[in-house]
Amino acid sequence: MSEPQLHHLAAFSAGDAGGNPAGVWIGDRLPSATEMQRIAADVGASETAFVAPARGSRRTIRYFSPEIEVTFCGHATIATGIVLGHNDGLGTFVLETPVGDVPVTAEMRDGRLHASLRSVATRQAPIADIDLSAALACLGWSRADLDTALPPVRAWAGAWHSS
């Protein structure tokens, strides 16, 4: 068994500035949930992806914030695509997430390594009035700030979000 690797990356960035920080842990087998939670807390990014084992182009992936396990994280998936592209070569890797398979592709464009993903099937649902009020309060917005042509909904692409 090879030593696990822990990477710190910023997805959606070009170079060292900006982006969305994520941890990516790669190993031959996943640690226990308790250990993944501890590592994610040590990394301190909003999410850390844990990836193992390699079975051809398929990998199991789990996501942990510093406090809880989450079902899916887009920016940590993009960061994982960069690490897999660097370590295992260009191509498409199928990540077996808790919410379904997510293909992530690593490719060279303009001399730089890029990653893209195809989300699980999306869906939306009405948002409860109390949840909408709480979201607006967090943003310091009022209902008058919303575009009436676009009703507020909860959106799902691996995890529920209110928008």
| Measured distance between first and last alpha carbons | 44 Å
Question: What global shape is seen?
Answer: globular
Number-wise, the strands total: 11
* Uncertain stretches of 5 or more adjacent residues: none
Radius of gyration: 17 Å
Q: Helix tally?
A: 3
The secondary structure category is: alpha+beta
Approximate strand percentage:
35-45%
Mean pLDDT: 90
SSE pattern, N- to C-terminal: EEHEEEHEEEEHEE
Query: Tell me about the biggest sheet?
Result: 8 strands, mixed
Helix content: 10-25%
Verbal overview:
The protein is 23% helix and 40% strand. The protein is built from 3 helices and 11 strands. The strands form 2 sheets. Strands 1, 2, 3, 4, 5, 6, 7 and 8 form an 8-stranded mixed sheet that branches. A 3-stranded antiparallel sheet has the order 9-10-11. The longest helix has 15 residues, at 74-88. It is globular, with a radius of gyration of 17 Å. The protein starts with a strand and ends with a strand.
In short:
With 163 residues, the protein is an alpha+beta fold. It is built from three helices and eleven strands.
